[in-house]
Amino acid sequence: MPFVQTGRRQLLAAAAALLVLPRAARAQTDYPNRPVRMIVPVAAGAGLDVVSRVVAQGLSDLWGHTVVVENRFGAGGTIGTDLIAKATPDGYTIGSVNSSSLAIAPALLPNVPYDPLTSFTPLGLAASNDCALAVRVDSPFRSVADVVAAAKARPGQLTWASAGSGTSTHMAGELFRQVSGVEIVHVPYRGSPPAVTDTLAGQVDMTFNTINALMASIRNGRLRALATTGQTRDPLLPDAPTFAEVGYPTYEAAGWLGFAGPVGIPPEIVQRISESIRQVTQSDAFKQTMSNVGMRPRSSTAAEFRDYMASEIGRWREVVRRSGARME
Hints:
Layout: H1 2-29, E1 36-40, H2 47-63, E2 67-71, H3 78-85, E3 93-98, H4 99-108, E4 120-129, E5 131-136, H5 144-153, E6 159-162, H6 168-180, E7 185-188, H7 192-200, E8 206-210, H8 211-219, E9 223-228, E10 255-262, H9 267-281, H10 284-292, E11 296-297, H11 302-323
Parallel strand pairs: 1-2, 1-3, 6-7, 6-8
Antiparallel strand pairs: 3-10, 4-10, 4-11, 5-8, 5-9
């Protein structure tokens, strides 16, 4: 009798396990079965916000469940990024991340509340945003060589505007100072629009800024792009050389934008989200939208994005260390 009861209990336990396992599997393969929250650590209308909303709509269409965008900005993007890191790792809270919040801010700020390498589950790359060095059309500087010559003749007297301390535009300028050996004074602004406005008004000599922020003034003939910061010429400014082409072969300072979740999301859900993001970012509609807003579409697997993030985090940490850059 004890043997029979024990055997019966084992059979019942096995049957219960068989009932539970498919249910658990369904919970993962049916993801998502309710709305998903997407945290965006910048203000509405910023480049990362534009990319995030396009991807959110694409995911909503694919999944049949709404992806709700929630802008949580401040402290250089670290407030919203920290919320992503501390979310429940069930796949129902994901977020957009960029080079500023994951690669640059941790190198500049001593007390960032997350570890850029261990606090996140990378999900996929979505876009990159080249910068350009631009001057007014009536500026005496018609080339990068002109800027370098003037800066060396008058060290510490020329000024350059960025979209703010800790942004990709800030790092683009710091890297230029580093590779060229010039002393030009950084003037950080609260976003790209005021930096461009003051460059046009002659309050600063030049600006390192994102191409999408500069395009309107370049097209109407008020600004001139001297060089772009990507590895190859930007399709929106095909006549502007890269810094590599004008004598700085190691220079590359494109900002990037992607998606991540908190560490610990089940692998099956990571794969589902990553594949869906790739489907959106590889679509013709997404590529056209990125071109319209002055960005380059990018796409990657979760593993590829993890490796890329690690490389960029190490690279910008070294740039910050060598340049002595700081938050201002």
